[in-house]
């Protein structure tokens, strides 16, 4: 699951630090340290410093040719967190998005976004059916599609087109027509399932 970026206290150096920017070839972001004047108990100032460091780093736009899928997921979750903080997105919806994109990042996060194709997401969705219900698998794929659509609209993310454009969400299989109704299973119970 992509970690939400935040400032952390380094007790060895006695300074706040954070990881910003694009991931390098080892998958790590650049570590930057706050000024030593920001003390351990001053988390508010640490957040202020961290947001400034992130904004300064985002002015150097990542190149579309090496933009990884989990980086786009991280950008999308940062935007979604702002929406949640402003009351425009429910906390449970944000948590679901984070879970969904975490599952996606575990499987395809290290792929360059431009190399993704609709078939990749279809295979990913089919693979989810081994562990999740069809509805949940569909919701995970829908969140991934929403994140990539958002990245195309976001002015700071260098993605010209959604690489999975044309991807069709998997259809959810219907229950068999001959499945017995709940009330038919136990004649002593009514339609509510309670004893009569």
Automatic annotation (TrEMBL):
Basic and acidic residues composition bias: which ranges? 181-196
Q: Which SUPFAM superfamilies match?
A: DNA breaking-rejoining enzymes
Q: Which UniProt keywords apply?
A: DNA-binding
What Gene Ontology molecular-function terms does this entry list?
DNA binding
InterPro entries per record: DNA_brk_join_enz, Integrase_recombinase_N
Q: From what superkingdom does this record's organism come?
A: Bacteria
According to the UniProt record, where is the region Disordered?
Answer: 163-196
Q: What is this protein called?
A: Core-binding (CB) domain-containing protein
What lineage does the source organism belong to?
Bacteria, Pseudomonadati, Planctomycetota, Planctomycetia, Isosphaerales
């Amino acid at each position: 699951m992509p970690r939400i970026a935040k400032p952390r206290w380094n007790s060895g150096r006695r300074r706040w630090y954070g990881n910003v920017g694009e991931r390098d070839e080892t998958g790590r972001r650049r570590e930057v340290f706050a000024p030593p004047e920001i003390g351990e108990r001053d988390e508010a100032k640490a957040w202020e410093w961290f947001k400034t460091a992130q904004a300064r780093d985002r002015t150097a736009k990542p190149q579309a040719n090496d933009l990884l899928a989990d980086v786009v997921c991280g950008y999308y979750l940062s935007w979604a967190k702002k929406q949640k903080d402003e009351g425009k997105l429910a906390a449970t919806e944000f948590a679901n998005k984070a879970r969904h994109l975490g599952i996606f990042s575990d499987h395809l996060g290290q792929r360059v976004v431009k190399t993704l194709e609709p078939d990749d997401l279809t295979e990913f969705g089919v693979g989810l059916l081994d562990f999740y219900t069809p509805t949940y698998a569909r919701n995970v794929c829908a969140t991934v599609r929403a994140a990539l659509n958002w990245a195309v609209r976001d002015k700071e993310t260098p993605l010209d087109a959604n690489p999975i454009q044309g991807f069709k969400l998997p259809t959810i299989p219907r229950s068999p027509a001959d499945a017995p109704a709940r009330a038919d299973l136990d004649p002593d119970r009514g339609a509510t399932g309670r004893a009569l």
